[in-house]
Amino acid sequence: MTTPPLCPILGVHIAAVDMKTALNYIRENLSALRGKYICISNVHTTVMSYEEESYRKVQNGAALALPDGKPLSVVCRKRGFAGADRVTGPDLMQEIFKCSREYGYRHYFYGSTPETLKLLEEKLGETYGLDIAGLESPPFRALTPEEDEAAVERINASGADFVWIGLGAPKQERWMATHEGRVQGLMIGVGAGFDYFAGNIKRAPMWMQKLSLEWFYRLLQDPKRLFKRYLITNTKFLWLIARGK
C-alpha cells in the first residue's frame, strides 16, 4: 500500500491528492485500511493542530488527512504538489455512496441526533439504495468504559465497511484515534456531513464552491457559531503561512 504524497502544512501531513486519487486509494486498499481512520482536514483543524501537539499527533496518525479546505489544496500546489485539489467530506461521502451498491459496501453512522439520523436513513435509502448497517446517536457526554465497549461491539457486529463519524472537530478525530484498531471498519470523520445528507444544511451553490466561498455560505447559515472561528482561525492561518510555517 503506497501512501499518497504528503505536504506538511503547519506540522500536519496533508495528503496532496484530488478526489479521484483519494477515492481510488480508498477502494483499492480498503482491506488494509480497516481499523484505521481518515481525517477531513481544513483550516480550522490545521490551526488547532499547530497550536496543540496532542491534536497534531491525532491528525498525523490518520491513514489520510485530506484537504477539505480550499486553502490547504492551494498551499499544496504552491509547494510543488500539482495534483492536489479540494476533497470535501460531503463530496467524498457522495462518491463512496454512489459506488456502494457496485462494491457491496455497508455503512454505519455514529454521531448527531436521532432526528437527523432518521432523516439521513430515509434520504440515503431513497437516493442511493444504501446498505445501512447501523445508525447510532451517542449521548452528549463522555461514555463509561462499559458503554464505549458496547458501542464498539455494535459497530463491529454490523459488519460495516465504512464507519462515518459525525461528532464535530476535534471530538470526532480524537474518538477515531482512540478507537483505532478496535473498530473494524474504516472510520472517516465528516463533521457536518450527516446534516448535509439529511437536508438540515444546504451546500453552497457550485459557483461559490469553485470560488472558494463555501465558508462564507456556511457563515451566513450559522453566523453565531462560525463567525469567531472563521475570523480568528482564517486570519491566523494566513499569517502563519505568510511567515513560511
Structural key phrases:
245 residues, alpha/beta, Rossmann fold, two-stranded antiparallel sheet, 14 helices, 53% helix, WecB/TagA/CpsF family glycosyltransferase, transferase
Topology of this protein?
Blueprint lengths: L5 E4 L2 E4 L3 H10 L1 H4 L3 E5 L1 H9 L1 H8 L3 E4 L2 H9 L10 H10 L1 H4 L2 E6 L2 H15 L2 E6 L8 H13 L4 E5 L4 H8 L7 E4 L3 H6 L7 H5 L3 H8 L1 H20 L3
Parallel strand pairs: 3-4, 3-8, 5-6, 5-7, 7-8
Antiparallel strand pairs: 1-2
Protein name: WecB/TagA/CpsF family glycosyltransferase
InterPro entries: WecG_TagA_CpsF
Organism: Laedolimicola ammoniilytica
Question: How would you describe the overall organization of this protein?
Answer:
It is a single chain. The chain is α/β, with parallel strands linked by helices. The chain has two domains: 6-198, 3-Layer(aba) Sandwich (Rossmann fold); 212-242, no CATH class. It is built from 14 helices and eight strands. It has helices spanning 19-28, 30-33, 43-51, 53-60, 70-78, 89-98, 100-103, 114-128, 145-157, 171-178, 193-198, 206-210, 214-221, 223-242; strands at residues 6-9, 12-15, 37-41, 64-67, 106-111, 131-136, 162-166, 186-189. α3 (43-51) crosses α4. The mean pLDDT is 93.
Short description:
The protein has 245 residues and is of the alpha/beta class. The protein has two domains: 6-198, 3-Layer(aba) Sandwich (Rossmann fold); 212-242, no CATH class. The protein has 14 helices and eight strands.
CATH architecture of the largest domain: 3-Layer(aba) Sandwich
CA(first)-CA(last) distance: 30 Å
Please report the total strand number as a whole number: 8
Helices and strands, in N-to-C order?
EEHHEHHEHHHEHEHEHEHHHH
Here the CATH topology of the largest domain equals Rossmann fold
Strand % is: 15-25%
Low-confidence runs of at least 5 consecutive residues: none
Strands of the largest sheet, in order across it?
4-3-8-7-5-6
Total individual domains: 2
Task: Tell me the major beta sheet.
Answer: 6 strands, parallel
Q: What radius of gyration results from the CA coordinates?
A: 17 Å
Mean pLDDT across all amino acids:
93
Helix content: 40-55%
